[in-house]
Design a protein that fits this description.
single chain; alpha+beta; Nucleotide Exchange Factor Grpe, Chain A, domain 2; three-stranded antiparallel beta sheet; three-stranded mixed beta sheet; 5 helices; protein-folding chaperone binding; GrpE; GrpE protein homolog; mitochondrion; unfolded protein binding
């Protein structure tokens, strides 16, 4: 801005000097007077532009300051908004924790229910095995009567042992203990225990043809596999 004014001032002086050299005295006075008014007008215009620039700068600075300053109401609103945002975040976190806690509790309920049911169904497993041995002894006792001559006393004894064995078996069945007698069935390693094999062309290979010891299950779980003889495949 200053450089342009200086150039304009120099051009005016040069033009004035040329005109002075060419024109008479009166004309020179008029030209000097005109130039003085021109210079004053240019200076006044420059001062006006400078003041306008300063006013614009002050206005801009005031607008920026007003933009940065906040009223108490705005500050209170921002604080409330920040509190609401924090409460929303906490609510989401506690909701997730609640959902996980409920899921964990339900899983614990299911696990506990299964454990209680398992304990109820198989808590008597060891005691059942002891009863099974008693049933085996009754069976051995009955076999000892086979092929022997019986008098009245032995017959009564035989009937008493047989009756006691039947009562034992009914009691075992009542509590979920079932006898496994797989004669004629296909051999199953999950339920049977093969003790020997025998070739029999009249029967299918892998068939149980003899039971050496009865097996038992407790509520579907094998507590003693049946010891069996299995038909061997013929070559």
């Amino acid at each position: 801005m200053i450089s342009a004014t200086q150039n304009s001032f120099k051009r005016s002086l040069l033009n004035t000097a040329k005109l002075v050299q060419k024109q008479p005295l009166k004309s020179q006075v008029r030209y000097f007077t005109a130039n003085r008014f021109i210079l004053q007008a240019e200076k006044k215009g420059e001062d006006t532009k400078a003041k306008e620039g300063e006013q614009q700068a002050e206005t801009k600075e005031g607008e920026q300051q007003a933009a940065t300053e906040k009223t108490p109401e705005q500050i209170e609103i921002e604080e409330c908004q920040n509190k609401l945002d924090k409460m929303g975040s906490d609510l989401k976190k506690f909701k997730d924790l609640y959902i996980r806690s409920v899921a964990d509790f339900r899983n614990l309920q299911e696990t506990t229910k299964k454990d209680v049911s398992r304990a109820k169904d198989f808590g008597l497993q060891k005691f059942s095995k002891d009863l099974i041995e008693t049933v085996d002894n009754f069976g051995h006792c009955l076999k000892s009567f086979e092929g022997k001559e019986k008098n009245e006393e032995i017959e009564v004894l035989h009937e008493g042992v047989e009756m006691t064995l039947n009562i034992f078996k009914k009691t075992l069945n009542k509590h979920g203990i079932v006898e496994v007698n797989p004669v004629g069935e296909k051999f199953d390693p999950n339920v049977h225990e093969a003790t020997f094999e025998f070739a029999d062309p009249t029967k299918e290979a892998g068939t149980v043809f003899h039971v050496q010891q009865l097996g038992y299950t407790l509520n579907g779980r094998v507590i003693r596999p049946a010891k069996v003889g299995v038909v061997k495949a013929t070559e």
